[in-house]
Amino acid sequence: MLTKLKKLSPDDGMDIYNMLQEIPKSENGFMNGSYGLSYDDYKEWLIKSDNISKGIGLEEWMVAQNIYWLYVDGMPVGLGKLRLRLTDKLKEDGGNCGYGIATSKRNQGYGKEILKLLVKEAKSMGIERILLTIDSQNDASIKVALRNGGTIEKTVGTKHHIWIV
Fold this sequence. Notes:
Elements (H helix, E strand, L loop, with lengths): L2 E5 L6 H7 L5 E2 L2 E2 L7 H15 L11 E8 L2 E9 L4 H5 L4 E5 L8 H15 L5 E6 L3 H9 L2 E7 L2 E6 L1
Antiparallel strand pairs: 1-4, 2-3, 4-5, 5-6, 7-9, 8-9
């Protein structure tokens, strides 16, 4: 299995679009802003997301974030987000990192792989501690975070705060 993390590009095409339609719009706190869009609207979403990664067009509550695709043997199977810094609000709900795997590709170890690659990417950018806030009922994501070296620092309400160092 050959895996690769690729940063979002405004030129991404139908393979990414189709994969994104397999990741729910909202699931366990993870938001897929491209779910249900027409192909033309998806292309606009790519441009907006690329601008956000550069700090352009951020709303007051937002921080710059990069979006990445997990490719396995040349096919996209997942989406990962990496926020470049944390606000006080993101320290409580959101964290640095989140990911989603296409429903047809789940339970094959891709969640663990995308998180491993996102952590490596974060460290290459100088982000030494990566926070994930995971719903306490999301056993699969909790296991993925712990298997990637995460430690549950605290639980607030229904969210585990898991740090990967």
